[in-house]
Amino acid sequence: MKYMLMMYVEEKARQDVGPEQARRAAEDHAAYAAMLTERGVLIDARAFAPSAATLVVRGNDAATAERTPGPFAETPEQFGGYYLVHARDLDQAIEFAKACPEDIVEVRPIVDATC
């Protein structure tokens, strides 16, 4: 089964890190991605631009859809990126999440359906 490991980050804290901490964080994520790749479970992984670049669209009618700049969630933690993995079950997906370099990881099963 596929699972999305969604990482939440405190953007303010990210802005305050020095170059050495940023380098270590990048190395930690590279090592984590390598581990998932070696296990044959990594499907995709991406980091997101800061939430200030976010645009929320509400409604599906082009004439009336409402566009709102900024993050949808008004919390210090913002959706910062994801790892999409294969896992045999939720327990294995949770083990992958525990190994992630980020402190907050939401584990969500992917439904195999066409949108």
Automatic annotation (TrEMBL):
It comes from the Bacteria. It holds the Pfam family YCII. Residues 1-111 form the YCII-related domain. This is YCII-related domain-containing protein. Coiled coil: none annotated. It comes from Sinosporangium siamense. InterPro entries: Dimeric_a/b-barrel (IPR011008), YCII (IPR005545). SUPFAM superfamilies: Dimeric alpha+beta barrel (SSF54909). Belongs to the YciI family. The lineage of its organism: Bacteria, Bacillati, Actinomycetota, Actinomycetes, Streptosporangiales.
